[in-house]
Amino acid sequence: RIAYVNGRYRPVTDTAIGIEDRGFQFADGVYEVWSVRAGRFLDHEGHRARLERSLNELRIPLPVGFPALDVILHEIVRRNRIEDGLVYLQVTRGVARRDHPFPPGPVRPTLVVTARALDLKAADARAAQGVGVITRPDLRWKRCDIKTVNLLPNVLAKQAAREAGAHEAWLVDESGHVTEGSSTNAWILTGEGVLVTRQTDEKILWGVTRLAIKALAEQEGLRIEERAFTVEEALRAREAFITSATSFVTPVVSIDGRPVANGAPGSVSMRLRALYLEAAE
Ligand code: PDD
Question: pTM value?
Answer without folding.
Answer: 0.97
